[in-house]
Amino acid sequence: MEIGSPDIPNEFSIGHAYPNPFNGNVSIPINAISDQPIHIAIHNILGQQVYQATLIPNLPGAMSFNWAATDMLGNPISSGVYLFQIESNQKILNGKFSYVK
Question: Which fold has domain 13-99?
Fold first, then answer.
């Protein structure tokens, strides 16, 4: 596969988190242009990091990050607004979603 082919996006991008607001699980569509690591951090409205992960894509292309509304220790999070940051290939993208119990 080559970058620019229909299977591989030309630019690293994310879609809108859905469902939003959510109760249980939220998904964030990601379009990766390479097999480089994708770093994900989720913060509460106070700026405290509640979750982080690193995805290692097998191939470039479309994928989805699914989060079950838990902190790094597996504890359920509180209802509220959360901000996420996704970074790959020195490009940082941001978004937000709301969690409702």
Answer: Immunoglobulin-like (2.60.40)
